Predict the 3D structure of the following.
Amino acid sequence: MGIGLPIALFAVVTLSLTIVHARDARAFERRAEVTTARIVSAAEDDGSWIQHVTVEYPGGGATRQGRAPVLDPREYEVGQPVRVLYDDSGRVLLDAERYDAASAAFYASALLVGGALPVLLGWWWVRRVRRIAGGTGPAFAVQVQVAELRPRWWNLRRPWVTLLPLDAPDQPVGSYPLMGGVPTVIGGDATGEVKGHVRDGGLVVAHDGRVLWPRGRLRG
């Protein structure tokens, strides 16, 4: 299917970005100065998924202003004193938020759950399906139908593969959603074969002249 390599590359890039951010966060904490600042603005920004507060703090013999990331700006009030970390580049981080809003652990967890973990699961799924398709296990002759279906109200309408016994075409064995990007012709019947666990909840791969890769397990 040609998607194993892109998935692996995406996982490598995601983990690399996590490592780079972790090193950057630790380097900032090592070089940063610590002082007491005052909140001058704590307004929510609906246009950004990372919220900030504006603080005023003494540094280098002058009074500076900077924006510090926070989880919830509503927890802060204008005029409230807070401890901050800052460096000469103008980067500011609230001491109380360093392990929540801008820490390496926060971003590493977000990237792992939202990026690397689904990618690794997808890579595992593709490898398993390819092993079944290319394995030496038994193949069963079936009638194969491909049609746009929506078996449950929560399913998106997409091509589904339905498997029917040759001797009982009115009693479907089950159906599974077709993996995206697979060229297919909607409608019509074809005689083909299926490999895998041909039962409700089993993982199968059908072949009717082309491999019909499954997006999910067989549903009775």
Notes: The chain is about 25% helix and 35% strand. The mean pLDDT is 81.
